[in-house]
Amino acid sequence: MTGKKALLISMLILAGMCVLPLGLGIYPQHVLIVSLFYVMMASSWNLLAGYTGQVSFGHAAMAGIGAYASGILAAKAGINPWIGICLGTVLAALIGLGLGALCLKMGGIYLSLTTLAFSQILHIIIVNEYDLTRGTMGLQVPSLMAEYDKLVYYYIMLAAAVLILSILYRMIHSNLGLNFRAVQNDELAAKSLGVRVLQVRVLAFTVASAMAGFAGGLYGHYLLLVTPEIPSLDLQFYVLAMTVIGGMGSFIGPIIGAFALNILAEKIRDYGEYHVLVFGLIALVVARFAPNGLLGLWKKFKPIKPIQAVKQKAFPTP
Amino acid sequence: MKCKRRITAVAVALLLLCGSAWAQDTIKIGVVGPRTGPAAATGAAFEEGIKLATEYVNSKGGVMGKKLEIVFEDTAGAPDKAASGFERLVTRDKVVMVLGESHSSSALAEIEVANRMKIPFIVVEAWADEITSKNYRYVFRAGPSNSGVVSKTIAKWVVHEKFKRAFIVAENTDWGIGIGKLTENAIAKAGVPSESMITERNSQDHYVELTKIKAFKPDVVLAYIYGVGLHYFVAQAGETGVSSKAVTLDGAGPPSLWPDYWKNVGDYGDLECFVSSMHEKVELTDLAKHYREAYTKAFGKAPTDYKSRSIFDGILIAADAVSRAKATDADKLVDALEKTNLKTTRGMAKFSLEKGGAEYHQWEPPMLVIQWQNKQQVVLYPPEAATGKIKH
Amino acid sequence: MLAISVMNGLVIGVIYALAALGVSLVVGIMNVVNFAHGELYILAGYFSYLFASALGMNFIAAMLIALALVFLLGIVIEVTLIRPTYGNDMYSLILTFILSIVLQNAYLLIFGPYPNKPPLWVKGAADVFGLFLYGNQRLAALIAGVAVIAVVFFIIKKTWFGRIIRATSQDREMAELNGVDTTRLNMLSFGLGCALAAAAGVILTPVFPVTPTAGVPVALTAFVVVVLGGMGSMWGCVVGGLLLGLVENLGAAFISTGYKNVFGFIILILVLLIRPSGLFGRAKV
């Protein structure tokens, strides 16, 4: 697939996404809006786990930082939600930078444990500081618009998702992206070729955290209620399952995974609260037998070049 | 050509008619409640009440000549799930009215959705004053409120039993924090010194807190913990010797009535007091007797958790309003609800229309204080309904 | 207040140490962190509840069967999920994390959201040194926990199997050259790690009943203890576990009850900042 062709196809998909909600009722619109939130979360987590080999369990916590920062500013200080979302994004980026710098030296298991610990600390703080956050009771936050309208929210989320995806796409298909892959594939080799492993990792962690913070802020102002369920292990699991099932380390995989799993969740909900179990089982089977996800399976039977091409180019580039 | 088109038009019209006739075969009312989470047993109690209420209403001819259908949405006791579940009932299931809930924090999230989507919502067992004191047009409460329970029952009972020092333990939710504060103020006014503490509702270990309580030397501990957390609290109060010196009151009630109460607390559960609106010797109306009989017949046991009967009342009130409004239009339903004057299991239901405070759109049913004495329920308060005296 | 908090800290600390020993064993030998450790702890609690309360077995028999079943399940997990991931610790992290969520939701479906409690071994409470009343079951848990830790130490330090384990965790290639079947050793030690989680589970669940998600804080604390004590160090687990139990309970008593579990995580971050190899770890990253 050439760049032009890919651009054309994504333009067509985007146009389709623009007209899609018009004929739908409020309920399907809601499902699409939530799916777009997960697209942002899964794609940015994929930048960490899929492209630089850092399994963070604190991505949902970053969304929580964005949601609570903006929510508290708007609900307690009356600050415009858009300004709040920007501040939340910056805060998530800063925390991401600090956390990244703290544990990236250790890498691997230490990173996963520390991000997990971080998300637990955040959870406990939110629950205990109920004067500020209203704890498990949930913080009611203002809407992004004067007159609550699902369709407007849909277009805001769509625009945000397109923004995030295009930033990710450019990063991955630049020199930086090659460095990411180099770091993931072989740390030592990358180091010897002059890739500054630590900086590359910390940068990816900061960018991904900022994206999660941004998505979380928007999501909070859509739900109008920010609760500790946003920075929870459950949400973290959703994001992980969507990425793993869709295809970790591919650009389109998490997008497909997010839509597929969120819509599936709504369908399963009709029969009771089994969707997490079903996701888990699917994710377990996929992760065990098809580590490249559904997209990888599809590619296996219908091989397409770009990913391999990028991989080969990764090493010679300093 | 013309003829063909007309036939098509007629066919389409017929299909549409049939479709809408099918769609409106029943009147759909939504119920929200926790089927999972720390108070999942309340969801089970709600389901029992729903079954009995639907049978009762439909046996009397349904509503507006149609069958009543209840759609139950699980809220898991989590405000975010409650708000999205409420919205799902309205947008996907197209219910005309919603009722239920037994977590104040969830209810406070839901009333915002009800108000935004203009859907009548009858809160049944969420007690926080803010639910009605926001004075939303579409929000009603046919059940206890924090200030009502404290001023009419708990504070009066504390005075009635001549307790000298009270310790208040409240969970960190809208209900717990709210009712804890109200109790503190009410018993201070009555001259009973107290100390209070906020606790985490899912906490399994209360030893440290109980040590602090013991140091205060109270003769009554007012525990506002809703969920299985109360079981841990009661069992550990026994282990640490707090309950040998002080009477414990479960300020919510149902946790002391759940089937696994005795399994979790063992012998330490005896002599514990709790709040309830149901006791076999204190039935206020003949409908309450009907409920007890229907329940025993349907489930092969006597009703214990009073919240199953609260949802029963709520559905009766909702069905009555739809029947009188003869419409499913939200504003007509609100008008009908405001004129409610209906016999329920807990007396005549009637919503106050006085604006400004928590009384607006509120009907406060009477509550009892009951004590477990040798695993038997003994009513302690109010005195006119008492079936025995408190034991220490 | 001080005395009862120290007592609580000791009881919980011993259980933390026990759970952490299981994690540490697996990390030392296989370099795998099992995120489903807490769910196996819970499973043992459910089994012992099921056999003792529902089927009416003797509680000791029920506990032993629970232990054996979790050991077998551990072996099954190792063979089906962990074995294909050797050399890629990221992959095993993701797999065991998904497994933990699957197990939590399976428990929810099978056992429901309510807490379940195996029968108490002993009833009532005892007066400890005239200082405070303390639940007998908690005292029994303390004794049982210490006994199991002693048995584990004996196995690792004094037996032939223990020598193989220590050799392999120090130098895997050398052990292989000396004829150790590391594949089988992996399988056995993973099973043993799970069985240690199960031991902690059967001991503590009569005090703190099981719910589907009650394993999460236990596993997280076990991870913190392992990092604190130094990855792969047994004494580190014991000292770290007791330290964490004491810090948590003293913090809860004198600082804030709500922040009880935060103290452990703060220690974790401090350790990572100051001494990433932990208290007893070899200074090697």
Judging from the principal axes of the Cα atoms, what is the shape of chain C? globular
Please name the two chains that share the biggest interface, counting residues whose Cβ lies under 8 Å from a Cβ on the partner chain.
A-C, 40 and 39 residues
* Sheet with the most strands: spatial strand order of chain A: 1-2
Order of helices and strands of chain A: HHHHHHEHHHHEHHHHH
What is the beta-strand fraction of chain A?
under 5%
Major beta-sheet overview of chain C = 2 strands, antiparallel
Structural class of chain A: mainly alpha
Major pleated sheet of chain A: 2 strands, antiparallel
- Residue-averaged pLDDT of chain C: 83
- The low-pLDDT segments of chain A are 303-318
Share in helix of chain C: over 70%
Shape of chain A: globular
Total number of helical segments of chain C? Answer: 11
Radius of gyration of chain C: 18 Å
Would you count the extended β strands of chain A for me? 2
Description:
The complex is a heterotrimer of chains A (318), B (392) and C (285). Chain A has 318 residues and is mainly alpha-helical. Chain A has 15 helices and two strands. Chain A has a domain at 25-231. In chain A, strands 1-2 form a two-stranded antiparallel sheet. Chain B is 44% helix and 18% strand. In chain B, the strands form three sheets. Chain B has a seven-stranded mixed beta sheet, with helices on both faces. Chain B has a six-stranded parallel beta sheet with strand order 2-1-3-4-5-13. Chain B has a two-stranded antiparallel sheet with strand order 11-12. Chain B is globular, with a radius of gyration of 23 Å. Chain C has one domain. A two-stranded antiparallel sheet of chain C has the order 1-2. Chains in contact: A-B, A-C, B-C. The A-C interface holds A 49, 53, 55, 57, 102-103, 105-106, 108-110, 112-114, 116-118, 120-121, 124-125, 127-128, 233-234, 237, 240-241, 244, 273-274, 276-277, 280-281, 283-284, 287-288, 291 and C 27, 31, 33, 80-81, 84, 89-91, 93-95, 97-99, 101-102, 105-106, 108-109, 216, 220, 223-224, 227, 256, 258-259, 261-262, 265-266, 268-269, 272-273, 276, 285.
